[in-house]
Amino acid sequence: MTAPKPAIKMEIGEPPELAWVPVTAIRIDDSYQRELKEKRVTQILSDFTWAHFGSVMLVRQSDDTFTCFDGQHRVEAARRHPSIIEVPAAIVELDQPRDEAGAFLGVNVNRTAISTVEKYHAGIEAGDPDMMAVCTLLEEAGCEVIARHGIKPAANRTAAVTAVQRSIKTYGDAAVVSACRTLVAAWPKDTGALHAIMIQALARLYRNNRQHIDEARMTAKLMGKDRKILTGDAETLRSIGGGDATASVAKVLVEIYNKSLQQGQIQIGANR
């Protein structure tokens, strides 16, 4: 049997302009770009050679400057090099910042490992519906995704973008909002309160017990617990009985909630 031919996208857009661009005319758009890593810039400077530099990807702006959506570390290294005033670039024409953010995602998702937080912020700038859904839900719960740089961690800030996405898909918006709101209210000084496993485990319980679970009771019960100790207890339970970490945390949360409760006890329920 003949193997099917791979799909080929024929609408490839206009070819980029190739040019040498002054480093003083290049800027970085912090709304979607990742945080500059000094060690990476230092490494490029110490090993600098044009043979390894390649071309950076730029977008021409109306004021004759350029924004860089791929190659910011190389641009910064060139800016600091005493012998360099220009860098080779591929210049593309894009209509608006969200198109630049989309180009950043396209380049880096296909070639370079980027964190879920970086992907989230670029997705928000690009108007990605999945990232916008995460943003809207977290805002409803009084929470947000951590900033890439410049803002201190806090109990209501999380890096668990993937966990929130999965929880929305599996347990629904209302359950995830309740889970995030509960965790922040219970541990307002814990910068790790919105941990991925905690979000998923608690969202599972809110979805499976939505008829009678009391958010205020769950919050009050967790206030008296140390999150790290609770997680350790769940890990001990998992090592004995097996299963995944999220299910083990959910079981511990059920025990905490049901203690001294004669009626209206909750159950872990199915993970679907």
Question: Could you explain how this protein is built, in words?
Answer:
Strands 1-5-3-4-2 form a 5-stranded mixed β-sheet. It is elongated, with a radius of gyration of 24 Å. The model has no long low-confidence stretch (mean pLDDT 85). 33% of the residues are buried. It folds into 2 domains: 17-95, Conserved hypothetical protein from pyrococcus furiosus pfu- 392566-001, ParB domain, CATH 3.90.1530; 143-258, no CATH class. It starts with 16 loop residues before the first strand and ends in a 14-residue tail after the last helix. It has helices at 38-46, 50-53, 72-80, 97-111, 116-126, 129-140, 161-171, 173-186, 196-208, 215-223, 227-241, 245-258, and strands spanning 17-22, 26-27, 56-60, 66-70, 86-92, 144-145, 157-158. The chain contains 12 helices and 7 strands. The chain is α/β, with parallel strands linked by helices and 272 residues long. The longest helix is centred in the middle third of the chain and has 15 residues, at 97-111.
